[in-house]
Amino acid sequence: MPHPLDNHPILRMNGAGNEILVLDLRGTDHVLAPEEARAIAAAPGLRFDQLMALHDPREAGDDAFMRIYNIDGSLSGACGNGARCVAYALAREGRERLSLATDAGRIETRREAETVFTVDMGRPRLDWRDIPLAREADTRAVALEPAAPGAPAQFSAVSMGNPHAVFFVDDAQAVPLASLGRAIECHPLFPERANVSFAQILSRDDILLRVWERGTGATKACGSAACATLVSAARAGLTERRARLRLPGGDLFIEWRADDHVLMTGPVEFEFETRLTAKLFEGAAA
Ligand SMILES: N[C@@H](CCC[C@H](N)C(=O)O)C(=O)O
Questions:
Q1: Fold of the CATH domain 128-260
Q2: Ramachandran assignment for 61, one of left (phi > 0), alpha (psi -120 to 50 degrees), beta (any other)
């Protein structure tokens, strides 16, 4: 029997430099196995930061249900830049606004301009159990214990549907992102691991940000991390509730509205469309 994804189209896009694949599985009952996600990531030209698999909606009013894969095959409950890429992909069907469900909740997107999209990421979750953390803590300032060599002593914890640890630093460019990110992602405080951000406050509405993503590593942009950072900075009184987040791949504009929803706006680029082949999955579970 041919592999169900043989000859299936796949889109390569990026959201502010965050490398995204969009795999539209609506109308099929195929659920991508972690091994299959890793096989796609290993194919020439298809390496991704996140793969967004679209499934038929489970509830009336939704446009799709999404499964979000990291490069190691693990799943995430949220991906802000990926959602904006999905919004661009489905805009080709004439849909300018979307409601997208994940296991962590529902997010909404809208088109602002030809290649600029906003995603409403919903409310941040700020209770230590929701991050989750391994022990009770005030999420505004959690002590990193045991200490990680070279890491700041404390961080802010936020869930945007996925776990984030945000460290405020004087010089984000000087942070050894790979070594610290790897160590903190898997720190015993995070039973589900964490996305790790290093943020430098430039002014009350301007933040420089570098991110080590859970399950993927250093990326050029991480939307949910940008949201978690703005929420952390505003809670700490370091910024207003609206700011520009400068990431290596581009700028994201984040607003934590009075109704508690966090909105992110930024650019999306379509790179190319190609087709998967059965050969790619040889050795991976079907
Ligand atoms: N790049 C994403 C976040 C992707 C998920 C993350 N690596 C996780 O495992 O939670 C974004 O734009 O939000």
A1: Diaminopimelate Epimerase; Chain A, domain 1 (3.10.310)
A2: left
Does 214 carry a binding-site annotation?
Answer: yes
Atom of ligand 1 nearest to the CA of 50: 4
Domain boundaries, the chain: 9-122+269-281, 128-260
Report pLDDT digits (tens) over 8-42. Answer: 999 999 999 999 999 999 999 999 999 999 999 99
Cα of 1 from ligand 1 centre, angstroms: 34
Residues of the chain with pLDDT under 50: 286
Identify the pLDDT of residue 286: 46
Is there a shared CATH topology between the 9-122+269-281 domain and the 128-260 domain?
Answer: yes
Threshold 0.90, pTM exceeds: yes
Give ipTM to 2 decimals.
0.98
Q: Closest Cα to atom 3, ligand 1: which residue?
A: 79
* Catalytic residue check, 227: no
Please state the length of the chain.
Answer: 286
Whether 234 contacts 256, CB under 8 Å: yes
CATH topology of domain 9-122+269-281: Diaminopimelate Epimerase; Chain A, domain 1 (3.10.310)
State yes or no: is 186 an active-site residue: no
Alpha-carbon distance 89 to 130, whole Å?
Answer: 31
